[in-house]
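Q: Sequence in, structure out?
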Amino acid sequence: MRFLALLALAASALAQSPAPARPSFAEWLAGVRAEALARGIKADIVDAALGSVEEPMPVVLERDRAQAETVFSLEKYIARRLTAKLVAAGREHVQRDKELLDEVSATYGVPASIIVGIWGMETNYGRFSGVRPIVTALATLAWDPRRSAFFRGELFDALEILNRGDIDLPRLRGSWAGAMGQAQFMPSSYLMFAEDYDGDGRRDIWSSHADIFASIANYLKGHGWVEGQGWGREVKVSREAARKIAAEVARRAGACRATRDMTVALPAKEWRALGVRLANSRPLPDGLPRAAMVAGTSRYFLVSGNYDAILEYNCAHAYALSVGLLADRLARKAAPPRPPSKKRSARRPPKL
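A: Exactly. Output:
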């Protein structure tokens, strides 16, 4: 009994003892510098890249705590992002780069509409790829304890990109989270999936459409995209069917929240038995591959394994569904404008 009492006392004292003090940012950065040199990064690269980092960026930490994909509901996020202007611009790019996109699509087995859909969602077709200095942003997130291990690795990968001469430091700018170029690759993804499709000796995801499109397609292919299979489709689910699905269909396991917020994959006949129908209220056809369900507040989707490849780009359903829905609209031809009716009077409004 005395031993148990001493053990409990020791555990209580340990629980009440203050956590070890975090090193200052300058001390932490000195450790990063030493490790970078030990990894073989050239001293001049380390000095230039880390010498420009003076302190953490508060705006980066603020953005990390308030990502749109988690703040807004699925339906609100899609409505805000999937605008008529975004679709129209995407259709223009599909036509403008049709020959290149068709070639890249045939090479990697990823539809052109999906490639352009991701390009559009990530950077509005290259119009805005971020202005934050990548090294400072990654250093901020690596020093912050929330996801320090992940971002520390990305910081060293960014230094390796500079070390290889793929881009110079002044141009190494991107999102607050460290995503780079028009493909918005994290440094680790760049090192693994970026492509030199135009053959100029550089994997240029900042300005070469050939490299941008091929890199996006290579990323999806590398994460399991299956050629000839769609990403998914919207379906109709009644309230009663939704309750039944929530009670009877298991959820998936996964490393991120989005994969846990979807069901396991079931064949079409089982979804049909649960009351799921196509968006036009017709029964689900038997030829559909096994699919998982993603549910919003009022919208429901059956998604294939290719949807998981999109989630690897950004593991948030609001993002992945927006990519899929944008791609669907880009794949459809725009309807021709209606000619003005000669029967309508300028004084008499049309009937609703």
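The two ends are 83 Å apart (CA to CA).
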